[in-house]
Design goal:
single chain, 148 residues, two-stranded antiparallel ribbon, 6 helices, binds zinc ion
């Protein structure tokens, strides 16, 4: 039985959902801590392809984060330090995660060239490289759809 992800358009072969693939990637990171270097990038890509998991403000924030990590090549630690003042949940007056009245969505539909399932299909050996490739493709696809 094959169905399709309403958010990213992936085909769910044999009932294997995007979330199942997300958990598989987290498992590889837990199992082999070296894989954790791309943790932030992976979580970001997964959520950007499922933007309803973010609030509207959260999605805008995440898009900025992707740009900083890819284009400006900042490390998660640098970004954390720099944003500490503005993003500390106590000081921030908006929420990152979706609420019933605020769910992230894109202006224009996006055709994703790579998804969580593709990263998982390539296997654990390729994991770090695949996540980096995935992130670049997410950025490019968002640009192509004029959502950036
Ligand atoms: Zn999906």
């Amino acid at each position: 039985m094959t169905s399709q992800c309403p958010a990213c358009g992936a085909r769910w072969e044999n009932g294997r959902t995007c979330q199942d693939n997300f958990y598989q990637m987290l498992f590889w990171e837990n199992e082999n801590p070296a894989n954790g270097v791309v943790h932030h990038l992976m979580v970001l890509c997964y959520h950007l392809q499922h933007p309803h998991l973010y609030s509207e403000d959260g999605l805008g924030y995440a898009l900025g984060l992707l740009k900083e990590m890819l284009v400006e090549e900042k490390s998660p630690a640098e970004i954390r330090n720099q944003k500490r003042k503005t993003v500390d949940s106590g000081r921030r007056n908006w929420k990152v995660t979706a609420r019933p009245e605020s769910k992230g969505s894109y202006r224009n539909p996006v055709h994703w060239s790579m998804r969580a399932a593709d990263v998982v299909a390539a296997g654990e050996e390729q994991y770090i490289e695949q996540v980096k490739t995935w992130a670049r493709s997410v950025y490019k696809d968002l640009q192509t759809a004029e959502n950036l």
